[in-house]
Amino acid sequence: MSNLRDRYLQDSINTASPAKLLMMLYDRLVLDLMQGEEALRGGDRESANNRIGHAQEIVMELHASLKLDAWDGAPGLANLYSFMLTELIGANVKQDADRVAGCRKLVEPLRDAWREAALAPA
């Protein structure tokens, strides 16, 4: 059963538009941040490390794929990604759930804005 789910997920990723992929990344980032924060608050260091580490990977991917010359806001977004990465590393090292929550509060409006843009009629 797990193999079927993995295959479905991989097929979904392979056939998704760039806008859909971006929405998927942001959705997963928010989920990782929520779960990482909850794990820290619950004292589950291993789970927190896994979720926050995965969130860091997503932020690095978002930063690496950002085209700085595509629009005027791109450099600011790149700076925000760098800030979040620093915060997540610090949160993981210091086991600081509030820093993770702060990153989530930055990401959620971005996720919502990208979703709205992706779903808007062309």
Automatic annotation (TrEMBL):
Main localization of the protein described in the UniProt heading: cytoplasm
SUPFAM superfamilies reported in the protein's UniProt record: Flagellar export chaperone FliS
Top-rank taxon, per record: Bacteria
Gene3D superfamilies for this protein: Flagellar protein FliS
Subcellular location: Cytoplasm, Cytosol
Pfam families: FliS
Keywords per UniProt: Bacterial flagellum biogenesis, Cell projection, Chaperone, Cilium, Cytoplasm, Flagellum
Residue ranges of coiled coil: none
CDD domains: FliS
Family: Belongs to the FliS family.
PANTHER family tied to this protein: FLAGELLAR SECRETION CHAPERONE FLIS
Protein name: Flagellar export chaperone FliS
Organism for this UniProt entry: Actinoplanes flavus
Organism placement in taxonomy: Bacteria, Bacillati, Actinomycetota, Actinomycetes, Micromonosporales
